[in-house]
Each structure stands twice: as C-alpha cells, then as structure tokens.
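--- STAGE predict ---
source: upstream dedup step, 1 unique chain passed
mode: sequence only
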Amino acid sequence: MSQHKTAIIIGGGIAGPAVALSLTRVGVKCTVYELRDGPATIGGAINLTPNALRFLDYVGILEDALKSGCPTEAIEIFSVASGKRIGNLPFGSKARHGYSSLRIGRTDLQKMLLDAVRDAGVEIHFSKKLVRVEENEDSIMAIFEDGTSATGDFLLGCDGIHSVVRKSYVDPTRQPSYTGISSAYGMTPTSAITQPIHFSAAAMNSSCNGSLLTVYCSAEKTTIYVAAVMEVPECQGEDGWRIKGIVAEETRGSLLQRFESETLPCIKEITSATQDLFFYPVFTLSKRGLWHRGRALLIGDASHAVNFIVSQRKKSILTIY
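--- STAGE serialize ---
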C-alpha cells in the first residue's frame, strides 16, 4: 500500500465506513462520500458471522456491538404445522471460531461504524451524488452532481447493488434486475407477546407457504425482528419502502394466513404486533462481471447480489436470510 496514500470511498452505509476504518489503520488517508443527506438505512436487522465480529474487534467496536445486538450462533428451524424443531442452521460459535455470531439492527451498526470513522479522523461528506468517474495515469477523480469533485490514488465503490461506480465506470453493462420478490419485515416488542416464545435466539418457521424469520435483535431480547419474502410485482423504491394503509394490512393478513400455527401460537402474536412494516426489494446481478477497473474497486453489494435461494410453487417462496 506504500504507493497509494489517498482513497475516495463512495458510500456511507456499512461497507464504506468499514473499509475506511481498515485502510486508516494502515496509513491510507480516506474520505467518505454519501449520496443521502445524513446517515440512513432501511435494512432492518442483519446477522454478523464470526468473521464480521473479528473485524469489529480489530477496529475496536466489538464491545459496543455486543452491548447492542443479540448473540445468535444458530437459527433453529421449526415446522409451523407440528411445532417441532426439525433442525439448526449454524452461524458459528465462539468455542469453534473464537467469536460468536450476532444479530443487530443495521441502524445501530451503521452508527457505531460512522462514530468510529469520525474518531479516526476520517471526513464524511453527505449529499454527494456521484455522476461520473475519470481516471488518468496518476490518479482517479469522482465528480459529483453539485459540481464538486474529489481526487485520490484509488476509488472504492461501496455504494450498494445499484452502484453508480459500477454502472458509470467499472462495468456499465452489468445492471441489477428486480426479481419480483421483496422481503416484508418489521420489529415487534417482546412485551407484546403473552404466549411462550419457542426459540432461544432465532427461528426459521417453515410451512408449505414459505418461511418466516423471527429473531431477537437486541441484547436484552426486548425486540424481535420479523421477516418473510413475498411476491411484489411492482418495485416502489430501490432501497426499500414503508408499507402503508390497506397494503400494510393486506401484507400483515397474508403473513398471518401463511404462518398461523396452533402449535406455535406466539407466531400470530409476533406477526400481529409487528410495528411499521417495510418492503426490501431483492435485486440480482449476473454472476460474471468486472469487480475492478484501473484504480477503481467494487466492495460488497456493489460487486455481488444478496444470496437468496428462491423456490416458487404457486405462491410459495423459500429464502435463506
């Protein structure tokens, strides 16, 4: 890295700040540019594997993350029909890997990363919409819609599956395609549940109509993240959108119908008490494509799509979260 001293990072979500922290530790001066006018994410809660926790430990924010999220070494798989546990989907244990796994809110994780980035002296600029990238023999330049620009030794596209870095420079022919399905999700306060909760940390509740994920996402287990995929022919926002009015009630009704269980009565309560519902659209990218060009490199979702396994039988959809 000695020949490269400055990095332009496009994207202030999760990947961008994480990359900035890593490069700063080896002496690279980083600047982060974010499209939105402030920190924002609509991704609900995510599971961090042992490798992710090892990274958080490396950059010094693991302790804060453990105080916020819920350890989730495995997702228990239950049959909605019988109520029986039929298997486990392991994510990694501290005994085996040195670190556990953690389910945490994306907003919480993003805030921790951005705070750490600021503490490390990295500048973050919001309201910076990238329009094009130019490169010469000695440097690379990001040009923004407001007429400003930034020049560095290399540029990292951490701007998601709809990456402008990819679409405008690295690989313009590789465009994301909407799959016709979205993840419907929301948060439920544990205090609203009166029936016994059948899982210790997380459950994939499987039926002939798909799978419903229910998982604690706070250290005190006060909040349950609920998610299932649904057919949504019309995408109303690339980054997701809040479901309102009659659509929200129809969505909740569909989830209740698909996953109602006499043997697991808490599922009905969890679904009924779910607060604001959101749709997160699932896009895919072709497997083959460029991840870099010259001094530009794609990171995270900018270079690959979310790993979803989709099986449709009538209106049944199965997904791996």
